[in-house]
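hey so i finally got around to running the thing on that chain from the lab meeting. sorry it took forever, my laptop kept dying and i had to restart like 3 times. anyway pasting the input first so we r on the same page abt which one it is
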Amino acid sequence: MSKKKTISLVLGSGGARGYAHMGVIEELLKNNYEIKSISGSSMGALIGGLYACGKLEEFKNWVLELDLLDVAKLVDFSFTGTGLIQGDKVFTAIEEIVGDVIIEDLPIPFTAVATDLIKQKEVWIQKGRLVDAIRASIAIPSVFTPKKIGERYLIDGGVLNPLPIAPTVADDTDLTIAVNLSAHIGKDYYKIHIPKKVRDQESRMQEIFLDLAQKAEQLFSREKKGTFKEMGMFDIMGRTIDIMQNAVLDCKMAGYSPDIIIGIPNDACGFYEFNKAYEMIELGRIITKEHLKETHK
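ok and heres what got predicted. didnt touch it at all, straight out
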């Protein structure tokens, strides 16, 4: 057997498309790559943190088995005006999977990237409780309430760095592989077979996310100036975040370039379509397999 190639893995932000990171990781491991460090923003921090502590498979099984009632129980609406969802129930469930793990005790170096809301600075979280670091990095503006760590109020790392390559620059690894969840390629190029049982489950789960959108309309109605017939509030929010992150990403990539970029289509699913886990995991696996074929030619 050939010697394993060591990699620094950079996992980008992109909402529900972040489930694709699981398929990417599975395919990399299958192809004899050894992940020696991870840096992630938002969903990238969540999936990367779960892998680093050895709980990614357990999380994947949990996500794929969620049904309508499970999701309904996890949603705890916040009425403070700082975010639609408090997030305590979701992260209590995630903490049950992760456990009380300290980042410094992980078997590989891990960085969760967040944004200091008050000081408007990028923050690298490389010590302390893993679940707190993930909670801070994934605090999507207007959806999850900010996470307070020390004196800082932290929100989604993707606001200032959607693909955090910089924390891996000093790594002694063979390659840096970055997963960009906002690639400008059409999802229709990739054919994914989705079993009927999964499609039915996705459809039932969609009801919850439509309800979330309606609750959001009510919560933020005092700020609403007008509506588009074609888009709901979450569509507009998701597209706005995508536009912002693409502009930031272009600037960041000019300074740090990875050896391989695995691109997940930016239209693969909506930013908030967290009911499409199966589809996104399969897409991540298919695209990674394709990239590795090209690399090994």
